[in-house]
Design brief:
Elements: H1 6-14, H2 22-45, H3 50-70, H4 76-100, H5 104-127, H6 138-165, H7 169-190, H8 195-218, H9 230-248
Helix pairs in contact: 2-3, 2-4, 2-8, 2-9, 3-4, 4-5, 4-6, 5-6, 6-7, 6-8, 7-8
């Protein structure tokens, strides 16, 4: 290793987020799907309600974020544990806003979009960049996780709107989101669009994909689902998710540099 490459290598080791590869997106979609089924398990199957479930998951999220920020280096299960916590809290928080608080899917989505944009704007004004390629500073981590919490909550609202109110159903909603993700992927490989912007677009869109897939797995046949139930679906997805995390992070891939936005 030459001296000129040593600082980059040390910075790579210090980063506390994984490289954004295909396995990253597969694990992220599985985590968001588990967040959907797990959130419904607590709020609906166990009948704790959206408010209490949100309170429980927000405590889990705060504890997970503090643990992540205090870690000195990247740990895959801690990182993906925080991602899962954001999807669990995002599921029940979105349901609370849309259903219990009576905002509805469109108003709830508009509120969450505003919160997401405000968080990204505050992040950029404070630190000068919203790039997620390298995260090691505690301030950047705090912005990173709040942004992810709002993006996953927004994705839940969008997914529920597509599945329940748009007339597309669970399968149609999943296909539409998959198509939009394909457009983002084409823009990534075939255009000079901001990689940072494309990352956050993909991050938001993978949440409603997970939400619609989760509903497809758990809802009854009469509602267009596979009727696996929240318990069976959550356990199955959890096992697959853990296995993929172990396999994909045995050897952490090198990251490519990303220009700040």
């Amino acid at each position: 290793m030459t001296a000129s490459h040593a600082p980059d290598r040390l910075a790579d080791l210090a980063s506390k987020v994984p490289a954004v590869t295909l396995s990253f997106w597969v694990i992220k979609i599985l985590a968001t799907t588990l967040g959907e089924t797990g959130g419904d398990l607590l709020s609906m199957t166990l009948n704790l309600g959206y408010a209490l479930s949100t309170g429980i998951f927000m405590v889990v999220f705060v504890v997970a974020v503090i643990t992540q920020i205090r870690m000195r280096r990247f740990h895959p299960f801690v990182y993906w544990g925080v991602i899962l916590a954001t999807t669990l809290a995002g599921t029940t928080l979105s349901d609370y806003l849309d259903r219990t608080a009576g905002l509805g899917y469109l108003a709830g989505s508009a509120l969450l979009i505003s919160l997401l944009i405000a968080t990204l704007a505050a992040w950029r004004l404070t630190l000068g960049s919203i790039s997620s390629d390298h995260i090691s500073d505690p301030k950047a981590e705090a912005f990173y996780w709040v942004t992810i919490l709002f993006s996953n909550t927004l994705g839940t609202a969008l997914g529920d709107f597509l599945a329940d109110s748009s007339g597309l159903g669970y399968q149609g909603g999943a296909l539409l989101i998959a198509g939009l993700l394909a457009v983002v992927a084409i823009a990534y490989f075939r255009s000079n669009a901001s990689r940072v912007l494309l990352f956050w677009l993909a991050f938001v869109l993978t949440r409603p994909l997970g939400a619609t897939v989760g509903d497809l797995l758990t809802k009854t046949h009469e509602k267009g689902g596979l009727a696996l139930g929240t318990v069976v679906a959550s356990l199955t997805i959890g096992v697959v998710l853990a296995a993929l995390i172990v396999v994909s992070h045995r050897r952490r891939p090198a990251r490519s540099p990303a220009a700040p936005l």
